[in-house]
């Protein structure tokens, strides 16, 4: 894909006698991967002759000018066939291929979570978002569904870039609202993979009572924190009354279609809605109160939410450790590099599930060194 469309783009710029080969593209991506754990202030320093920054593996695999040429022509689509309605058309073929492969090799697990991820970007683009309180505040927002089971928590199953009303979500789901439509679309993706009693966890941006009722119709279990103004179908104590109770107090009620809503007084009032879990058995958790440890009651549905909500956050955490540090000038470069890091993160999960013992850093180093050492680009000698 990259070799074909990068050469097509270069040819349309009338760049002659500079065809990019598959070996060159592999070496190019090897350098990108290496930049995640060997970070320098400028990418040109990898080829610098200074002893303190020169990288022999990089410089022997590809010349600096060749790397810059591939970077300036990097493409994964045909610009003459871009959809005017899709603001991410430049990377749409890559997203489709990534989703297809992630789902093809996806481990079979019941617990999943849906949340938003951020791709750092500081340039100008109509889809760039600002999200207060996130580790990455500026960039492209990505809807993501990931596995939450402990043995492979963070494996990304599906992702879709957010682009407002043009987000690639089926119209029939958009009737439920923006957040619920994302969860419903992800539930469809899971059902198409394999028919299992999946359990999806999500936060209060996504949770509504109609969403949980719709999931129940498709035999999908759902649990999420819920906002106060979305509990009109269930009678439970108000937030004001709950604040007057002791820590660990809980109240619950159910809707007509068996959606359970639980309020729990912890450090703050926590609201959880579920279409499958129950209040009992009650668990006991330790808390600090006035510098002393106390034990408070915790309903079963809240314990399960805390245990299985963090799939997407774990994925973001894994990527953040060794994120590709080289940046491109084009807005879509950051998305290509993000998908590269995400693919390695997923591959590492599969490696561990098959009995592999490498940690993520060793795994990334192994990939980078293999790409660089087996795809060295031969250089033409200049004129004498």
From TrEMBL:
InterPro entries cross-referenced by the UniProt entry: PGBD (IPR029526), PiggyBac_TE-derived (IPR052638)
GO terms of molecular function: sequence-specific DNA binding
Domain PiggyBac transposable element-derived protein: residue ranges: 3-348
UniProt superkingdom: Eukaryota
One Pfam match: DDE_Tnp_1_7
Name recorded for this polypeptide: PiggyBac transposable element-derived protein domain-containing protein
Taxon lineage: Eukaryota, Metazoa, Ecdysozoa, Arthropoda, Hexapoda
């Amino acid at each position: 894909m990259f070799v074909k469309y990068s050469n097509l783009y270069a040819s349309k710029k009338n760049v002659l006698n500079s065809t990019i080969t598959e070996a060159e593209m592999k070496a190019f991506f090897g350098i990108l991967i290496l930049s995640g754990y060997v970070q320098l202030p400028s990418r040109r320093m990898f080829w610098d002759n200074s002893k303190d920054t020169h990288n022999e593996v990089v410089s022997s695999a590809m010349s600096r000018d060749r790397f810059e040429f591939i970077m300036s022509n990097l493409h994964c689509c045909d610009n003459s066939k871009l959809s005017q309605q899709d603001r991410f058309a430049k990377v749409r073929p890559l997203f489709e291929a990534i989703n297809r492969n992630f789902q093809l090799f996806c481990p079979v697990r019941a617990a999943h979570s849906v949340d938003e991820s951020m791709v750092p970007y500081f340039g100008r683009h109509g889809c760039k978002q600002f999200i207060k309180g996130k580790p990455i505040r500026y960039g492209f927002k990505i809807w993501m569904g990931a596995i939450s089971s402990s043995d492979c928590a963070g494996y990304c199953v599906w992702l879709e870039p957010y682009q407002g009303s043009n987000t690639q979500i089926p119209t029939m789901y958009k009737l439920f609202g923006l957040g619920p439509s994302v969860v419903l679309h992800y539930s469809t993706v899971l059902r198409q993979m394999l028919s299992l009693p999946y359990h999806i966890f999500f936060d209060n941006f996504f949770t509504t009572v109609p969403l949980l009722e719709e999931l129940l119709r498709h035999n999908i279990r759902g649990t999420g924190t819920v906002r106060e103004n979305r509990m009109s179908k269930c009678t439970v104590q108000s937030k004001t009354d709950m604040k007057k109770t002791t820590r660990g107090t809980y109240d619950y009620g159910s809707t007509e279609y068996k959606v359970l809503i639980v309020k729990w007084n912890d450090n703050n009032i926590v609201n959880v809605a579920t279409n499958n879990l129950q209040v009992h058995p009650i668990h006991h958790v330790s808390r600090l109160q006035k510098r002393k440890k106390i034990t408070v009651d915790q309903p079963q549905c809240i314990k399960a939410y805390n245990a299985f909500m963090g799939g997407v956050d774990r994925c973001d955490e894994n990527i953040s450790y060794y994120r590709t540090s080289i940046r491109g000038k084009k807005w879509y470069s950051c998305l290509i590099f993000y998908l590269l890091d995400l693919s390695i993160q997923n591959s590492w999960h599969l490696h561990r599930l098959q009995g592999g013992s490498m940690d993520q850093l060793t795994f990334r180093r192994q990939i980078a060194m293999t790409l660089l050492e087996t795809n060295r680009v031969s250089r033409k000698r200049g004129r004498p």
